Every structure is written in structure tokens, then in C-alpha cells.
Amino acid sequence: MISTAPGVEKMSAFFKVLGDPTRLEMLRRMYTSEHCVCEFVEMFQISQPAISRHLRVMKQAGIVLERKDRQWNYFRLNEQDPFYPLLVEAIKELGELPVQEHNLLRIKC
């Protein structure tokens, strides 16, 4: 069995996150501001457990940070992550969010 360096594992986790379309769209939205789980549920029209699983994968990869505020958990990009510059480039390649998508960013729980 071949052992892998920690950097290889980190990079693999990073690309696993980017490899899922829903997570990639969630990251694109977190590029402009932090969001809570309920906002993502409303934006994507998928279940809260599914959103939480996506956020857990991103958090475990170190790409996303969580901030607790009373009963709400807010998620944002981790600007200290070594792959943050690469993530920003990937997000920019996706282009601007359509105008109707910007309206969804204003959802409040």
C-alpha cells in the first residue's frame, strides 16, 4: 500500500468538494457573504439534512468555517485555507450570479 503525504490528502478533499455541483454553488454564494443552513435550504430547495451533509464535507476539508450565533450556525469561506486562492479562481470562472440569484441571497431565517 502506498502512503500519501498530508498535502495529497488535503488536495484530494479540496477537489472532492469542488466535484459536487451543489457544493460548488454553495461555495459561490459564500464567496460574497456567510449563510445559515436555512438560507441554503431555501435557495436550493433540498432538505436540511442534505444541506448539512454538504456543509460538513466542506468544513471537514477546511474550506468552510462555522460561526454560531444563538440558535443559528453561519458558514463562510475559510480565507486562511491554503487552497483559498485556487477556490477563488474556480468561483470566478463560474461567472456572476444571475440577478434573480442575487435576490435569493437576501433570504433571512
Description:
With 109 residues, the chain is an alpha+beta fold. It has a single domain, classed as Arc Repressor Mutant, subunit A. It has 6 helices and 3 strands. It has a 3-stranded antiparallel β-sheet with strand order 1-3-2. Helix 3 (37-44) crosses helix 4 (48-60). The longest helix is centred in the first third of the chain and has 13 residues, at 6-18. The radius of gyration is 14 Å and the shape is globular. It starts with 5 loop residues before the first helix and ends in a 5-residue tail after the last helix. The model has no long low-confidence stretch (mean pLDDT 88). One of its GO terms (molecular function) is DNA-binding transcription factor activity. It comes from Jeotgalibacillus malaysiensis. This is ArsR family transcriptional regulator.
In short:
This protein has a single domain, classed as Orthogonal Bundle (Arc Repressor Mutant, subunit A).
Helices, strands, pairings?
Elements: H1 6-18, H2 21-30, E1 35-36, H3 37-44, H4 48-60, E2 64-69, E3 72-77, H5 84-94, H6 99-104
Antiparallel strand pairs: 1-3, 2-3
Helix pairs in contact: 3-4
InterPro entries: ArsR-like_HTH, HTH_ArsR_DNA-bd_dom, HTH_MetalResp_TranReg, WH-like_DNA-bd_sf, WH_DNA-bd_sf
Organism: Jeotgalibacillus malaysiensis
Keywords: DNA-binding, Transcription, Transcription regulation
